[in-house]
Amino acid sequence: MVARSVIVTGIPEQLRTDQALTEYYNNLNIGSVESCYVVRNVHKLNQLIKQRASALKKLEEAYAKYWGNPCSIPGYDPERILDDVEMYKKVLDQAENKKDESSDSSDNENGNTKTPLAIRLTKRNTWRKAMNTTFIKSMVEPLDQKKSSRRPTVRTGFLGLFGRKVDAIEHYTVLFDDLDKMTTDLRASPNYEMTNVAFVTFNHMSSAVIASQIAIHPEPFACRTIMAYEPRDVLWSSVSIRGRERIVREIIVWAITVVLIIFWFVPVVVLSSLMSINMIKRIAPRVADAIQQNAATTLGYYQGLRSRSAVAESTLSK
């Protein structure tokens, strides 16, 4: 599918819908379009999702403070509990099978009619549910001993340092519900801002190649078409950046790079002068003599390497 797809940038206002862009490319007579998707601006939705996740995390932390940390229970081992649950299920299944076999054999001996399957399943599920409830309750009961008597509170002001104190669980529950409703409504809303970027997929690979090599629109820099990226290679947060903004960003990045080069030029020159062989001779003559004798190459020979190329590679790596 990637070989049949192109990415279009600089889309004019009148073509920023899926249907309009599909018709435009179909009218070029370079091949039929299979699908077309104009990228939507979902920045606000992303922010709401992050805020909802943050509210949920804080709500979980509030509940953890109120109920206590089960890991503080002496002998608490989650792996052992999971193993016990699995073993308990196996024992429960074996007990059910034996019970069914014994009931069937007793019915046959007494000449009674066999209990209908629906009734047997209902009894089995009821008994199993009761046993599961008892087993899980026996594991959860120690948690009640760690329950805090005071519910956690939080301040509603700036950074949680100011404002009046409110119940943390109720506050974050209301906040999460509100954010969840806003997120759901925004997801269902069709009123997303269309960007100037789109992905167009043709029915044939040759159509995509032709579209990426010709001028699609009479206006300069409009509907610039190139072969699409592999889906996992797309940076969705940057794909819809406008051309002017991208140029400004490049200028800023290059300016920062030049400043860093100038800033580090002086210390690098000083360090390189200190590392010259003449300076080393003044400070440590013996070290300079060892360097001139190519100590790194000597170490390569001492390693027992079998070829000169291996010695050279070892010297370079050192």
From TrEMBL:
Question: Could you list the residue ranges that cross the membrane?
Answer: 251-277
Q: Pfam families per the record?
A: PHM7_cyt
Q: Which UniProt keywords apply?
A: Membrane, Transmembrane, Transmembrane helix
Domain of life the protein comes from: Eukaryota
Q: Name one GO cellular component term.
A: plasma membrane
Which residue intervals define the domain CSC1/OSCA1-like cytosolic in the entry? 3-237
Which residue ranges does the record annotate as region Disordered?
94-118
Q: Which GO terms describe its molecular function?
A: calcium-activated cation channel activity
Q: Does the keyword Membrane apply?
A: yes
Name of this protein: CSC1/OSCA1-like cytosolic domain-containing protein
Organism, per UniProt?
Answer: Rhizopus delemar (strain RA 99-880 / ATCC MYA-4621 / FGSC 9543 / NRRL 43880)
